[in-house]
Amino acid sequence: MKESTVSLFYKSKPYRIVAGDAKSGTLSHAYLLVCPDGANLRAFLKELAVLVAGGDERRDRLIREERFADMAVIPAETGGKIAVGDVRAVIDDAYVKPLESDRKLYVLDALQDANAAAQNKLLKILEEPPENVYFILGSTNGYAVLPTVLSRVKKLELVGFSEKDIAAALKEKFPYREDIAEIAAISGGNLGKAEELAGEGSLTELSAKAAQIALNLTASTAVEFARGLVSEKVEGNKFLPLLRLAFRDMLMLRLNRKDLLLFGGERAVLEKAAKRYDERALVFSQEAIGQAERNLKFNANPAMTYETLFIRILEGR
């Protein structure tokens, strides 16, 4: 994990909670970190494992490298899925005495992808774990975790980081990017998403498209724009946050707060577009875009999602 990412996680509430439990000697036998940042979840879990292990620099390093003898990280490879057989192996191993410390650790990553059978297999050992055995579970969302599992763990939630903190981390990792503030603003507090965007090409073309749609959206162009986004295979998880940011900056222009603008380009276009909406409509439009983002996340039809969104924006105007 990059130093900037480590520092960011150290500021988080879940990290502070586990650090406090370790310091006071009140560690839970099982923690569940719910964090939408799947790209960094495994690394975050290992940082919590460092706290639970309570070791020295050598142990900390081995935990981060997934080479500590008294810790297992499951699945073995990033991107894998926890199977019933993996859980069975954990249960068998948990009753074996640790090799070089006084406790054993099991880090279970991506629990959201584990099926009900695998999660159910965990229940008994989570309910009655052997002495000095600790579980650190991670999931990108809490809804995918069985209620029976949730009732047996201490739940920690990391919704996201502030735009300021994400921007600072990105500047350290991607010093050549000039659109750091824009990327941080559309990341939704998700560091992994921000890092992915920063590692890709420029957002200039997509930003321009969002600005032009905001300016030229009418009843006669709504369907055309929706179909165009689909035919051009525009990625909704990038376009919609940029569109939301465009409407956010249009609101700032209406409020005469140019000092708060974040949209990277197309300032002249946004200034023209802002004159077509009042403040109430701009607030409503951002809410509508947020709903469209959630719909696409749950596999809604892209063409229908865009068309419905554009109609809602027009109705709000």
UniProtKB/TrEMBL annotation:
Name of this protein: DNA polymerase III subunit delta
Residue spans crossing the bilayer: none
InterPro entries listed in its UniProt record: DNA_Rep/Repair_Clamp_Loader, P-loop_NTPase
GO annotation, biological process: DNA-templated DNA replication
Native organism: Candidatus Borkfalkia ceftriaxoniphila
Xref: SUPFAM superfamilies: P-loop containing nucleoside triphosphate hydrolases
